[in-house]
Design a protein that fits this description.
- The protein is an all-alpha fold.
- The chain has one domain.
- It is about 65% helix and about 0% strand.
- Helix 1 packs antiparallel against helix 2.
Length: about 55
Amino acid sequence: MKLNAPKKIVWIIAFILGVLGVLGTITTIPIVSEYAFWFVVIGWLLLVIATVAKNF
């Protein structure tokens, strides 16, 4: 299996989701705190898919 580097925009979106998830766990942010775990999971899955898929 050949792995590819994710595009910059995908990396930035995943990073923002991860930061929102961590901040939502540490502090109370409306809507974000309720789904903080899922923000981190979706960001991580986005990076995994972008690494495995070609041209993503």
